[in-house]
Each structure stands twice: as C-alpha cells, then as structure tokens.
Give the backbone structure.
Amino acid sequence: MAEMTPEQLRLLRDVFQNACGFVLREDLKFIAERRLAPRLEALGLRDFGTYQRYLRFDPRAKEELEIAIDLLLPRETYFFREPAQLTTYVDEVIPRLAQDAVGRSLHVWSAGCSSGEEPYTLSMLMGDHPLLQGWDMDILGTDLSQKALSMARHAEYGPSALRSTTPEQRAKFFDSAEQGRVKVKREFKERVRFGWLNLLDGGGARLLPSMDVIFCRNVLIYFDTETRRRVVQLFSERLREGGYLMLGHSENLFSLTTRFELVQLSGDLVYRKPRTG
Ligand SMILES: C[S@@+](CC[C@H](N)C(=O)[O-])C[C@H]1O[C@@H](n2cnc3c(N)ncnc32)[C@H](O)[C@@H]1O
C-alpha cells in the first residue's frame, strides 16, 4: 500500500480543509492511506502526491473530491444519541420554544445530519410531545455526503443505528423491515426533509428559512478554529432571536464568538441567540 509522506499529507490536508473544513491530522494518516489507497488504484495513480494534484487540477477533480470526502469523513451516528441533552430539549427547550413561537410552527435544522438518525430522532421526540400536537414542524437535515443523504432518505436501518433505543422506542417509532432491519414510521418520516449543503458555503445556507433550533453535533470537532468561527457565524445568521443552538457534548463556543448566550437549564447547558429588543 502507498504511504503518505509528510509533504503529501500537508498538501492533502489543504485540499480537504478548503473543500469542507475537515482537518486531516497527522494521527489520521494511516486511516487516510487505507481508505484512499483504492482510489489510487482505480485511477492508476502511483502515489499520494499525484493524487493530490489530481484533486486540484484534473477536469474530474470535483467528482473525485466528492468520493474522497465520502471515504474520509467520519459519519458515525445513531438514534437517540446523547440522551441527557435530548431530555433537556424535550423537557426544557421545547416548552420555551412553544411559548414564544410565531404561530404554531417550528423550523429545526440538523446540520451535518449524516444518514438521518439525528433529524428522525428529533421528529420522533417532537411528534410525540404533548405541547406540539397539531403544530406544523419542518425538520431539515443537511449533509455534505450524498451517500449519507441517500441512506437518510431511504430511512431504513440496522441494529447499530438502534444501539441506544429502548424496546418501547423501537415499537413506537419503527416498522419492521427485512433481515432484522427497521424502517422509520411514515408519520415521523414525512416531516423530515433532506438536502445537500456544505457548511462552508454560506451562500447556500442563506437560502434556508429562519430557524428556531439548530442541532450541529459532532461536526465542529473536525474543523479548525477559523472554520468553526465561520460556521458558528452562519448559525447565528440562520437562527431567529431567542432560538437555540445545540452542540455535541464535547463541543463549545469558548473563544469562538460572543453572538450566543450560554443558558443554564436544569439538565444541561445550551446556547441561545440573544434577543436585541
Ligand atoms: C460524525 S457525523 C455526526 C452526525 C450527527 N450530527 C450526530 O451527532 O450523530 C458528522 C457529519 O458531518 C458531515 N460534515 C462534515 N463536514 C461537513 C461540511 N463542511 N458540510 C456539511 N456536512 C459536513 C459529515 O459528512 C458527517 O455526516
């Protein structure tokens, strides 16, 4: 298998960082070599130096970059991930949102939704919430990976996606499919839409409606500080005043921005866009 020299690693890091923010760290070198080696073979390229030039200058660079990103970026996700935060969302954030929403409608964005487990979890929790019965809920999942989005639209999952669900949740929210797999029930599927969006592309995101809540969990950890700052700024533009930003438990906004206030709820700390009026 071809090895990456430090210089090739640096050049490839630039390519991926510019394309999607992902930082190809030194400790990921071996994983990158293993995952990208089949691409060198498929394209008949001799080493990673030629591969990085292909990704920059070849007429088919755009298509290849999409393939490489799909191979490289972590897409790990599952239903009802980070349950303590979800309990806070249900018990404390939703009642606040329900109180000050304009009309009986909510817009929720799952940014970096991978194969859909996160937005479907939100649909299940919100569809089941006593305060939101009869409400119009628009849940949008976006990601950079076409492969992940096609799995999300299909809405069929195996045991690993269900690892954090209870038997009650499995019975309530899923129908059985073939070979021990499950399918998200129609009523929880139909209020979730999916779209391709690169979080580095501010122009694309500015076409989205104003959001009441943005979930962006386990995505910013893969970016450098400057990219995080840029993406968080975008979130602040897309959130309505008083709207909430929910990050993964290992992520925070320290030294990134002053555009959000940290709110201590009884179950968790969450970020909110302050009201100006
Ligand atoms: C580890 S998964 C997290 C999934 C889910 N949010 C969760 O916490 O379970 C990270 C996802 O972010 C997506 N991602 C990474 N960089 C992105 C970018 N620049 N724009 C959009 N999505 C991105 C990846 O494709 C991947 O599906």
Summary: Residues 20-22, 73-77, 81, 112-114, 118, 143-145, 148, 197-200, 217-219, 248 surround S-adenosylmethionine (CB under 6 Å). The longest strand covers residues 239-247.
